[in-house]
Amino acid sequence: MSAKNIAEFARKLGKDARGNVIMLTAAAIFPLIGLSGAALDVARIYLVKNKLQNACDASVLAYRRTMSGNNVTSETEPTARNFFNSNCPSSEHLAQLAA
After folding, report:
1. How many angstroms separate the Cα of 15 from the Cα of each of 9, 24, 38?
2. Residue 60: predicted pLDDT
């Protein structure tokens, strides 16, 4: 092919708009898949964070309720641990949420 033929072919290709949608869709599909995967990961992170925060809040409230005045005693610690363990999903369940 001579340079004249190549220039003519490039000119025709530039004027022809058929098939542009397919090329743009093919180029855009990979970033869209990546962004949707990232959005799913962020949603799962927030879900796990909220479950852990709720368990911590429940255990702190239970601990404070069992305190007598402002005194902290070792007798009230098991109550807080029990509330946390009952409100916190197991580590296997958290792993399933995060996976």
Report:
1. 10, 17, 38
2. 83
